Known about the structure:
The protein is mainly α. The chain is 47% helix and 8% strand. The model has no long low-confidence stretch (mean pLDDT 86).
Amino acid sequence: MSERDMSKFKRHMVKCPHCGKDVLDHMTECPFCHGELEGYSYRPLDPGKVRRIRIMLAIVILALAAMIFISKNL
């Protein structure tokens, strides 16, 4: 990794309060001591919200595909 990539990577590192090792800020459990990491900014998305996002994305993609298909047939 280049120095620039490493600096981006290091921004997302935090110390585990249980063992003191560096872990990524999005983790909910330390991979070394398996202690729970609370209070960090990452929270998994609500499954209902993920479903709504996927449905909306599918609608947008289908609408774009239909527009392209119709414009090629004109």
